[in-house]
Design goal:
The structure is a single chain. By secondary structure, this protein is of the alpha/beta class. The chain has two domains: 2-51; 57-400, Glycosidases (TIM Barrel). Helices cover 37% and strands 15% of the residues. It contains 13 helices and 13 strands. The chain has helices at 2-27, 57-64, 80-83, 86-99, 122-126, 137-146, 161-166, 195-211, 244-258, 318-339, 341-346, 369-381, 397-400, and strands spanning 33-39, 45-51, 74-78, 103-109, 150-156, 173-174, 215-219, 232-233, 264-269, 294-298, 353-354, 357-359, 387-390. The protein has a nine-stranded parallel sheet with strand order 11-10-9-7-5-4-3-13-12. Strands 1-2 form a two-stranded antiparallel ribbon. Helix 10 runs parallel beside helix 12. The longest helix has 26 residues, at 2-27. The radius of gyration is 27 Å and the shape is globular. The model is unreliable at 1-53 (pLDDT under 50).
């Protein structure tokens, strides 16, 4: 009787194994293995284990990002509202194809402090920092990639009124009132020396990357530049122990070390290309060379002071202003490369490339196709690698049509 029972058990096992293999063939599952383990006990039993290769986070991300990213991106900036509208995206994708562009920079965290999609970061929920403007983020990224468009996620860093109000212990204070410090627009800032907040930004960047964004772009990665600056009081930053440049260099290094396998870029003031100091905000271009893949100076001609390189109104001379700025930045990059060649080679490091933000808005002059094309040509001949057009309202059609004529 026992032998008969054993025979039936073995037969059932064989049937089960065949069934599992059959299901694997039907479903197209490959790369799995079957093991039968014998364990001693009062009643000998046979157990079946199915081992399926796990997919690491980096491998999972690689399946989502653009397979053949462009060597040089030609991008337009889009707000989360624009990116969240299917109809608007139809027109932007048509424009991108017509103009031979290949990338977009999309807000996922803007100056309001809100995250624009249903991000999976517990701290974001804790701060109630979601304002969902892009309801179908996965579909958006997939659509961009299906059209061979490189997707960059823009994150505004230290200007964050939501976290400042929820966590005043992390925010810059007003030493006269004792309350939160505000700039001239009435917006609160986080102390750049806060390690907890830096890690908050890293978590957002990682999640966006895992979603499939090909690159993370950091903006407002600096100390405040406007407002009653002398009234600022910092809970973490101590100007007697550290300069603003040193504090910001720590931020750059922290983001790089925390996001080693992710393409990251940094936005700098246009003057950072030519100024040897930190502009009073901690931004010195040499500190970014080893910590980012791309440096994106905002070389908008309208933002340079009257008299810059001899022009009463720099906005009217887009080619000259952009050429001077990018050439200067490129020369500093090459000088840094030469001075640090041994260390760079020993550590198997690569330095950043310069990819400027260009003006596509009317301040100081009317910026139509010819003015935009002048900036692009200037960047190309001066060491720039790709570019991004900025128009806060995302109105590009009347400005870029004919850019590739």
């Amino acid at each position: 009787m026992k032998e008969k029972t054993l025979s039936i058990s073995i037969a059932k096992l064989i049937i089960a194994l065949n069934l599992i293999v059959g299901i694997g063939v039907i479903l197209g599952i490959t790369g799995y293995s079957l093991k039968v383990n014998n364990e001693s006990s009062m009643n000998s039993t046979q157990q079946i284990e199915i081992s399926v290769p796990s997919v690491s986070e980096s491998e999972s991300r690689n399946l989502k990002i653009l397979k053949d990213p462009p060597e040089e991106i030609r991008a337009i900036y889009l707000t989360a509202f624009s990116a969240g509208s299917s109809e608007k995206m139809d027109s932007y994708i048509d424009l991108i194809k017509k103009e031979n562009f290949n990338a977009v920079v999309v807000d996922i965290k803007d100056a309001s402090g809100n995250i624009a999609y249903d991000i999976n970061v517990p701290d974001v929920d804790r701060y109630d920092a979601k304002y969902i403007k892009i309801k179908q983020i996965d579909e958006l990224i997939e659509r961009l990639h299906n059209n061979n468009i490189y997707a960059v996620a823009r994150i505004v860093v230290f200007e964050d009124p939501i976290v400042a109000k929820k966590r005043p212990d992390l925010a810059i204070k007003n030493k006269l009132t004792g309350g939160l410090w505000e700039n001239y627009q009435g917006i609160e800032w986080i102390d750049p020396a806060s390690m907890e907040y830096r890690d908050y930004i890293v978590k957002i960047a990682k999640e966006a990357s895992e979603r499939g964004f090909d690159e993370i772009n950091f903006d407002y990665i600096r100390f405040p530049s406007d407002g009653p600056l002398r009234q600022m009081s910092f809970p973490f930053y101590n100007d007697k122990e550290q300069s603003k440049r040193e504090a910001m260099r720590e931020v750059f290094e922290h983001f790089r070390s925390s996001l080693p396998d992710i393409s990251i870029s940094v936005d700098l003031f246009g003057l950072a290309t030519i100024n040897d100091g930190d502009l009073g905000i901690g931004q010195t271009i040499e500190d970014t060379f080893e910590n980012f893949d791309y440096i994106c100076p905002m070389v908008y001609p309208s933002h340079y002071a009257n008299g810059f390189i001899g022009f009463q109104n720099p906005a009217q001379y887009p080619h000259e202003v952009v050429k001077y700025s990018i050439e200067y930045a490129h020369n500093r990059l090459e000088a840094y490369r030469i001075a640090n060649q041994e260390d760079i080679e020993d550590q198997n490091k690569s330095l950043a490339e310069i990819r400027p933000w260009l003006q596509a808005f009317d301040i100081g002059a009317i910026y139509g196709p010819n003015m935009i094309k002048a900036q692009i040509d200037a960047s190309n001949v001066s060491g720039g690698v790709g570019w991004i057009l900025w128009n806060a309202s995302n109105r590009y059609s009347s400005r870029v049509v004919g850019i590739n004529d």
